[in-house]
Known about the structure:
The chain is mainly α. It is built from 5 helices and no strands. The chain has helices at residues 2-28, 35-44, 52-84, 87-95, 101-109.
Amino acid sequence: QSTEQNHAKTTMSSDDRATEELINALDEWNPTLPEEVVAHYLARAGFSSSDQAASRLVALAAQKFLADVSNDAAQYAKLRVSKTRGAKKQAAAAADLCLTMEDLSSALGEYGVGVEKPAYFADTSK
Length: 126
């Protein structure tokens, strides 16, 4: 058991080192989302902390989420364009790709976020 305990201590210390490296990297990282915006939404959620690393970690997670949703929405848009246009025109269409609310709704749906248009939303496509 002492070998298992030593291995657990070694694993924990490497995890601790990785955590420390992440926190140090956060100090040098320039977030895409302004810190004031992150602080505002953290306060609205009832979170308060004087630790800047905590808010930067939330900003990093939010940036990752936004990047994933944007990428997924772009994939839905490419799929939609490929269905409506031929294969030859698809390459040209990729340059002028236009994301729609349907693309964004589909992408957000993958993450459990439901998006519905309000009754007063003006939509000329239907």
